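Let's do one together. I've listed all components of the complex below, 1063 residues spread over two lines.
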Amino acid sequence: MGFFDETFDLMAPNDRRVEGVAKVTGAGKYAAEYKVDGLCHAVLVGSTIAAGTIKNINVDNAKQVSGILDIVTHLNKPLVPGLADEAKIKEARLGLAIFHTDKIFFKGQPIAMVIAETLEDATYAASLITAEYEKTDAHVDFDAALKKVPLTPAGKERGNIETLNKATQTVEAEYNIKAEVHNPMEMHATIAEWKADDKLKLFDKNQGVNSVQRTFAKLFNIPTDNIEVISEFVGGGFGSGLRVWPHALACIMAAKQVKRPVKLMLTRPQMFYSVGYRPAAWQKIKLGANSDGKFVGIHHQAKNGTSVYENFNEGITRVTRLIYHFDNLKTEAATVPLNLSTPTWMRGPGDCTGDFAIESAIDELSYKLNMDPVALRMKNLALDKHPDNGMPWSTNYINECIEKGAQMIGWKDRKPAHSQTIDGDWSIGYGMAVGAWNAGRGNASAGIQMQKDGAIIVQTAMTDIGTGTGVSMQNIAHEQTGISKSKINIELGNSNLPPAPSQGGSNGLSSIGGAVVAAVSALKLKLAGYAAGQNEAYQNAAPADILLSDSGISLKTPNEQFISYAALWEKNNLDVLEVEASSGPGAERQKYAFCSSAAHFCKLRVNRKTGKVKLERMVTVADGGKIISEKAAANQMSGAAVGGIGMALMEEQQTDERLGTLVGNDFAGYHFPVNSDAPIIEVAFVNKPDPNINPQGSKGLGEVGIIGTAAAIANAIYNATGKRLRDLPITPDKVLLG
Amino acid sequence: MRPFLFSKSSAANQALAKKNHSTQFIAGGTNLVDLMKKHIANPESLVDISSALPNKVENTTKGISIGAMMRNSATANDAIILAKFPLVAKAILAGASPQIRNMASAAGNLLQRTRCPYFYDVTTPCNKRQPGSGCSAINGENRMSAVAGYSEQCVAVHPSDLCVALAALDASVVVNDKDGKTQTIAFQDFHRLPGNTPQKDNNLPANALIRAIEIAANPFAKNNAYVKLRDRDSYAFALVSVAAALHLNGDKIVEARLASGGVAHKPWRWLAAEKYLKGKTANIANFEAAANIAIKDLKPLSHNGFKIPMLKGAIETALKQCLDL
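Okay, and this is what the predicted structure of the assembly comes out as:
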């Protein structure tokens, strides 16, 4: 059946994204696409040096360009109260005090902002601005700088690490990963409009409207409720929208300066140094096991890059304390300040980096032990309890992920020794790795509006960054109410709606699901309250006893006591019925530990003559509790796997120490996978509910899809060729010279 | 982007009349627009020549002529090209993306500028962009840079795939100068090595226009291959690429052609390897020997030593693919 033969009814989507049609037809608007009366445009001008002090900024030529409204610099700006002095800057935790300092910390740091009637005028004028600097020494080479920073303990030592020396087999190796830059398809953008001196409206690309609201309320010293943030459609987040970045503040300052609504959209080159990146990392692992494969212990050391004006610690060794039992464990870490913009969370932050080293080392150990890497892992999984805090898992089906994945890929066809399967110039191999993530949940609120015809709108401030939050809310609301999906609309990504946490850290659905369930209960009780006026049977009915349908309310009793919504509405003179409810984690967090997990398998071929790696199959099986929306969940997993291919094989932000610069800032040189690099990702789920994490039993999937992918690929390259490649990305040159 | 004047010409002589030092011709614009956005090219006026030049592949007495305005995707799908010079189509399809190929012109492909990252970053020194400012790549990030034919002034490589095939097939470039005179430049003489004038990519005369690319009839339509190694499977510039073509008589090589991208400032011919293969039996041992001859005198920079074994592998692979091995 061809794609266009599929029966498709726009009005009755079947598990399709609630925002899908709007997105693909262009009706859905991204932040930069809103039309606002009187809108003008701001363009940022970046520093051409990486460290020093601004001595002079020449804006004379820029001012000659027609249509220029104003030029903001650190000498000509509306003062942001929250950045008024050094103490306040520190307290604001914005990172870069944009336009409130003459210091330069990295190349590309905004030193000026042109505001003009048109984008073209602003862009042209921005190109005419020059500056003089007093330069100081800059360092951007992570590999060189990391040697100068000492390690410090990261968490408590377990057992005695010296015991590792008694292990039958040990692996000791170093792993390096290059920085990966955030470049979601939608570039970050803000439209800011001051509705009054203390009232602000923002269309903004981010992963949490309430966080944006709070940040600017504090910076401008105005009530949170005076700031409206709209992020209804988000074209990819991956962590880049979890922080409020300086350019958004710049846009708000521009709107203040010219007293008009202003749009500021980052250019693709600016994206390379404005919205964070997965920092470069160095790791050293010493891992040991007894001859039966039981792990003796692990010593994990890690360093990641950060900026000189902020400290960002990835938490690379967190995952070391999550998946396996290590009776003896020592973790150490350090951050390495560089003259680059501050890194940030990127899908599977920390764990993704740490897991690559651990899972590579385990694979290496399996060959030394002559043990199947699947069997070695199964022997050491911490299935009974969280290996660090000792609490019993609520659920942890990582073993089932491994078993199912092994079966799907045909793991039995893998040769135990490397370089055994040859096809002409190609060598074929299999690899696997696992990943896990502490599964969280936050406090969230949801609202429901119901019409006389039984149609409902479920609302939350939470954004849907492409993860399928909307369709999942619809599914939960449908399951809880019995109302048809076609009568359930979803509204999200607006700070006027019931508050919710940012969408990140695999917490989105886990948090909002409970709020939807709570809101449905509130709706049922409210309806039952009105129904009680017509039928006493509804008095004191509990939500579980109440059934809703497209047409009315009834009770779970033999004679149902059905009352139509129309009758309720007429009798009580109702217009729109509104409820709001909140839900969050509770006592279960003191009883259980929670994790999502996944197993990744791949089969690939390596060309011995050219170094080319071609993935043939990728299988990823996840334990995400109950799967609420299978298509959206599978989409999450396959997208993450493709991100993992990028991390494993091609993504790399190069730097030039002599010039204090990133090398390249476009997609000609920075490679992420294209369709041809990825096979069809075969996704499966354990799909067993976690009874304790939240009412719907689902655990977040966003991170585990990528944690372990890179190691699975590197391990398969070893199985194919006998080359143990420990530095990412594994580009063809490394394969050839390895 | 700086403001500029834009006009359209419907004939070559009309376009040429408008050309001066501050004017640039624009065809597909797939490279020029990027260069303008980054303030590397700063023309005061643009003359759109997309209606001013031939856009067909035509049979000629000697072979074929590819019109300068032939879009890359059209060339790659042209029946004459596919029948007589399939290597050209293979090379085109190994480059860029469908969207870019739909816009890019045949002549423009010859004139695209290097993709050296320092050339594109106006805050860094680059002799090609700003003569005399220095070469950032020679002692910097030069993984993609040249391994042959470079100078202290410039280590950039020419980014085209099409040009590698055209070099292998001994094409020629037909040029109209300002006075309307036509001149034919052999392909190997069209692009330059950097020497002391890295700002000059090629020998196109000032204020002249490429009218067509000609390829003489040849016996390479049956056994040819284009192999491109890159950091991802599609839409990336070559680490190295190889165009190979064999004229066979039974299993004897009558004549061989070998050219590469990602090696030098111009498409690079492996003449000594071609000479070695002439008259030899087409087998793996001879292909390996030819590849070894090709890589013998290459001079890698600090970060691109891998290109030597990669070229060897790519040449062997391309020659084997000529035989469908």
